[in-house]
Amino acid sequence: MHAVIINGSPRVKQFSNTDKIISKFAEGFCRDGNTYELYSISDRREWDDARKAYYNNFNIIIALPLYVECVPGLLMEFLETLTPKNEYTQISYILQGGFAEGSQLRCGQDYMKILTKELGCSYGGTLVKGDNFYIRFADERERERRTGIYKEMGAVFSRDGDFFSDDCIKFTGPEVFSLPIRLMLGLMFKTLAKGLAEKTAAGLGCTKPIDCKPYIKNPLPEEMPTAEGIGCRI
Ligand SMILES: Cc1cc2nc3c(=O)[nH]c(=O)nc-3n(C[C@H](O)[C@H](O)[C@H](O)COP(=O)(O)O)c2cc1C
């Protein structure tokens, strides 16, 4: 089996969680001799080839992160350049996001069905999983723990040719967290989360406290016109 995989994240390959997920997924998928070609929407220079691959192949997998509950705008821009095909082309989706509960991704999952119809293709199901915010910040061991599970799903796709099996449904994890877990998470956000965010920010080169409000500490210089001064209503 040959698949065209499109990474729909606007983040450059190096920093894209979706890219790391695709790598693991492809390992499992290629175990039985399958092949794939990958295109990243973040690089507009790949759009022409991605379009050609979409028109010339019948097994397309779009892997995408949720951005504000939606398909990332850049991916949408690319999709709008495609002409609808036919039912012999199957599009399947790997939908991932930051929030861990499956319920957070269901709206996006429903849209994948609509999108497939708009493109005139057959729907191959959507592999849904959240809790992926930290992949790019994680050390090697933790990253392997978070992404390695996609290898098995690559093997499942190789076996079934779609994402409809119970294995894929179970892969999502909890639909909604239980009350004790929600209480524990609430406590964590009030205590440990700030420390973790500070560590992550420092790792990204941030030298100021994460609650720093530079624009409040440094009011506008007098000569700079305010919104009211130039006739704007605020
Ligand atoms: C601007 C922005 C909006 C996001 N919105 C959501 C969201 O609505 N739901 C969600 O589960 N995750 C959301 N996330 C988290 C991303 O989906 C998550 O970090 C994903 O792994 C990013 O993949 P990428 O690095 O390949 O772009 C958002 C992230 C960003 C930066």
Q: How do you describe this structure in short?
A:
By secondary structure, the chain is of the alpha/beta class. 41% of the residues lie in helices and 15% in strands. The N and C termini lie far apart (58 Å).
Q: Would you kindly provide a written description of the structure presented here, covering whatever features stand out?
A:
By secondary structure, the chain is of the alpha/beta class. It folds into two domains: 2-176, Rossmann fold (3-Layer(aba) Sandwich), CATH 3.40.50.360; 180-230, no CATH class. The chain has helices at 17-29, 47-56, 73-79, 106-118, 140-147, 149-160, 166-171, 179-190, 192-203, 214-217, and strands at 2-7, 35-40, 59-65, 90-96, 122-129. The chain has a five-stranded parallel sheet with strand order 2-1-3-4-5, with helices on both faces. Helix 1 (17-29) packs across helix 6 (149-160). The longest helix is centred in the N-terminal third of the chain and has 13 residues, at 17-29. The site of flavin mononucleotide has 18 residues, from helix 1.
Helices and strands in order, then pairings?
Blueprint: E1 2-7, H1 17-29, E2 35-40, H2 47-56, E3 59-65, H3 73-79, E4 90-96, H4 106-118, E5 122-129, H5 140-147, H6 149-160, H7 166-171, H8 179-190, H9 192-203, H10 214-217
The structure holds flavin mononucleotide (FMN).
